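Cast an eye over my tokenised protein here and flag anything odd:

===
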Amino acid sequence: MRDGAGAGAQAQAKACLIVDDSRVIRKVSSKIARSLGYVPVEAQDGIEALARCKKAMPDLVLTDWNMPEMDGLEFVRQLRAIPTPKPPVVVFCTSKGDATDIHEGIKAGADDYIVKPFDEAALKAKLEQLGRA
């Protein structure tokens, strides 16, 4: 994650924050992110994710919508309010897939959307399409 500290390989690695209350989804998404060269960081809800972003801003965020404590929509709104020179690319990975939900997610600050259930190939293709953030 980008915290402004140090140079070298670790500082140059791109971080992908994966926010989901499902441990299985976090692990699958982490595996895919790692295969694309990201360093995956996991959070189980929006509160934990926001705290991680305030410490070190990731390059890419994959977030669920329906989570306890703070949902993904509110997390994205609050994330976008944090001043940062290079905001992360944000992708909703959620079962909320009708046009109204997608519009609401994009309006909140997401850059893209993928509907669950998705397979590994679909998520990998989406991340590659985004230019590896």
